[in-house]
Amino acid sequence: MKPAISLFQVGTRLSLLAFFLIASFVPKAIASEWSSDAELPDLGEFELVGELPEIEGNVVLIDFWASWCAPCKASFPSMEEAYQKYKDEGFRIVAVSVDSKAKSMETFVKRMKPSFSIVHDAKQKLVSSAGIKVMPTSFLVDRKGRIRFTHLGWQGKESAVKLMAEIEELLAEEAP
Amino acid sequence: MKNRLLCLLFFCIGFLLTGCATVEPWQKGNLADYTMRSDRDELASVMTSHIQFSREATTGGEGVGGGGCGCN
User: Fold this and answer.
1) What is the DSSP pairing of strand A137-141 with strand A59-65?
2) What is the CATH topology of the domain spanning A43-172?
3) pTM of the model
């Protein structure tokens, strides 16, 4: 008795299904993510709008935020405090707004009045490269340009204390 | 004929799968908008709650006191 469906036909259908499955997940699979001890990529390559501070030789906090994100807003006073405390020792902050509208970002900045550097990742290229999982996410980079600590979300005082300790640890390290 | 229909079905499923997309954390601006909140209209929320209580004998589950017994 001839089978209703040949092995060849089964194979063809399965490979077709596999192709579509792979095609639907490939963009996610190839997205790179910043990890600990990895070198910070050149921020100038990501078409950021705004002025970047001097990164080389400094301890830098790269913070991804958005105006619609409440924990991001809560983190700003602590970041401002850290910046004021350590800026003379070589600490810099690059707060990267991932807002799709520049106006939302500007309204937020006018209200919060941060003294550290704010840049707009209008095309969301940098944030895609970082591959963050939560908002806000920040990366603390040492004087050698290596990502040393990652903060996922903002847990109020707990995060602020941890951030301060990490900044102090990296500032204490020798410059290259 | 049956085989062709099966092939077409697999093709359609395949195309639907390629349409799957996840919203990344930095793309949730619209979802976080005030207009996306189900409780943005206080009056409508009270009305809905009242209708559920009086017509369906259900209450609670909205962060308020009461366990649905209808005795408060």
Assistant:
1) antiparallel
2) Glutaredoxin (3.40.30)
3) 0.73
